[in-house]
Design a protein that fits this description.
Largest interface: A-B, 40 and 40 residues
Structural class of chain A: alpha+beta
Helix content of chain A: 40-55%
CATH class of the largest domain in chain A: Alpha Beta
CATH architecture of the largest domain in chain A: 2-Layer Sandwich
Strand content of chain A: 15-25%
Number of strands of chain A: 10
Oligomer: homodimer
CATH superfamily of the largest domain in chain A: GAF domain
Chain lengths: 339, 339
DNA sequence: GTTGGCACTCACCTGCTCTGAGTGCCAATA
DNA sequence: TATTGGCACTCAGAGCAGGTGAGTGCCAAC
């Protein structure tokens, strides 16, 4: 069993190792932290911690380094949950407050988060499955090319080009637009998609083909509300933080394969404090076994959440990263919940 | 003066160095290329090339490496302009042909280009300054929050949230929408912005404030047509190609600071073949002195061009990268020029 | 349970030699 | 005059030896 002081020693090791990037020895610990005991005592504690596989020595005569299990214990029980500085809070409010639309909010959020944490920041687009259709617009770009624009009450705008086989008559376009609007406006995403499926069959024959094309396009746009997207920023931080450049290659690759990250996001469960972490080898299945992810939910509407977080080397400052992720998620919830 | 064969030697050095990543010696050259002369002769040529600062020896007793000046000469005079394989051409057509809208086209383009070249790919959004306003839509999201949507005949859609001080009357919204539509639809971006400036003054007092808010928002959207944006893909290739990881940090940073890249894009001039390169220290002002950029224009409408290209280490395969950039730019011109 | 002491380990630094790829130069050759 | 084989020279990099020091494990004493 690990003693009370033993846990404090683990905490000290995590802190010092994150700060110095070098294995931590018993002497360093007594020098930097006021334990009031000698180095030999610390050594005994460290031997116990090593037995529990919470720390490990890279080679026989070196200091210790936390294991993934050690980080996990640290995150779950030991990490300080200290709030951000008021200057940081102010920065969040000011920077995000200037946003002009949803895209802008999220792009600002992700840049902000990467600057606060010095890590790669990720923000998932809200799914808005509870949203309902506010407006459908159909614009003629060329004789046989239309642009379908879908607007929801969540303020999201989707566009899609519709190619038709033959040139279309403007009045037909108008009638199809009205029909589609009648069938969808005010309905939820799911209901609207269902209504559109059968819509063309109820129309006069001359309109059917056009209506089919447009309805399919709009259904495709509605489908986007299930598919998620990520925005990210700060990948340069990887090259700064990481010491070995070969290790950043799989990470950069994962960042481009958003699917992987979305699956990871999906699997994570927030704890009572609204923040959760996935550490090192817990991500091995995704080729990210030396990488940790700190994630929090944010809410855009009752019952609708999306996630944001940061990604960095296992050896990261969990305390402050978790605080930053939490604060940004809260502020974002407040900002987007207003509408 | 450098002889005819001297240039062939330079060409061989560039080729071999790009392939092997190691300084190229005289013996290697005679072994791999059928020059029909001895190593000593090649050495004489190399001494001349070194005098002209086209190649350099990293240390006294090693092979030679091209200088930036050497790459420049290679690109301008020696690089083969061989076309892509038909399989590659097919891949371009198939992959891009499936696009559903402008965003999709550009995001597919950039991914494609990064896969073809194994470099970081960049695509600039078209500016569409010649475009004209097709439609303006105003949607009420909340009592004092509207969404303004701007659609142009180039198929681009801009959205922006408008906050008003007080709750707005739906019929007022309708009237403002009509007024703004009348003032802008069918006009060019520049004309529409000018017309909107003075629009509110001509309206009844009760509508003025609302009209001012909305007009400002739409003017802001129109302003986006001057500001450019970049999409990029393949930054993981950096970590693969580069041997020293410290060198990728400034590059990753530049990739996040799109402003820098946009300025670089702006300064480049395409040559007669439609492709241009900026090599190594020519980019020193941007902190990219070990990086080269291969760029081509693509055309979206008569008189309107934007750029795309790839970015990678100075030691890159210029021949095939230039071929790929050129082919993709041509195809994109054809695809976007259709509308 | 804690401590000081002590022998032990091992990564890392330094200085050394050795090797080989590659060069520059030169006199001989076509 | 251009080309060639020969040769001495250079120097990065690999491999080895010895020294240093941070850190450990263990133990007897407190």
């Amino acid at each position: 069993m690990v003693s009370e002081r033993g846990l404090d020693v683990l905490k000290a090791i995590v802190h010092d190792y994150v700060a110095s990037r070098e294995p931590v020895g018993s002497k360093t610990i007594v020098e930097r932290h006021a334990f009031g005991v000698s180095a030999a005592t610390i050594r005994n504690d460290m031997a116990l911690l090593e037995e529990e596989e919470l720390i490990v020595a890279p080679h026989t005569s070196s200091g210790r380094v936390p294991t993934d299990k050690g980080y996990r214990l640290f995150v779950d029980q030991l990490a300080d949950r200290r709030p951000l500085s008021s200057a940081q809070r102010l920065a969040i409010e000011q920077f995000l407050g200037e946003s002009v639309d949803l895209d802008d909010v999220l792009s600002r959020t992700v840049r902000l988060l990467s600057q606060l944490t010095n890590q790669v920041a990720l923000v998932q687009y809200p799914s808005f499955t509870n949203a309902s259709v506010r407006h459908v617009e159909l614009v003629t770009l060329a004789p046989s090319r239309l642009l379908a624009v879908l607007i929801t009450d969540s303020g999201r705008v989707e566009q899609r080009i519709v190619e038709t086989v033959t040139a279309v008559d403007p009045s037909d376009v108008e009638r199809v637009k009205t029909a589609i609007g009648d069938a969808t406006v005010g309905r939820s995403i799911a209901d609207a998609a269902a209504a559109l499926e059968s819509l063309p069959d109820g129309l006069d024959v001359p309109l059917r083909q056009l209506a089919r094309f447009v309805a399919d396009a709009v259904i495709g746009q509605l489908g986007h509300y299930r598919q998620d997207r990520l925005v990210l920023a700060g990948s340069a931080n990887l090259a700064r933080t990481e010491d070995d450049f070969r290790s950043i290659f799989p990470v950069l690759e994962a960042l481009e394969q958003q699917v992987v990250l979305l699956r990871l996001f999906g699997e994570m469960q927030s704890d009572a404090f609204g923040v959760s972490a996935r550490i090192g080898r817990e991500n091995a299945a995704y080729g990210l076994s030396e990488t940790s992810l700190v994630v929090s939910d944010y809410t855009t509407a009752p019952g609708e959440t999306a996630r944001l977080g940061v990604l960095g080397p296992t050896r990261m400052d969990y305390s402050s990263n978790m605080a930053a992720v939490r604060a940004v998620a809260r502020y974002l919830t407040r900002l987007l919940g207003e509408s």
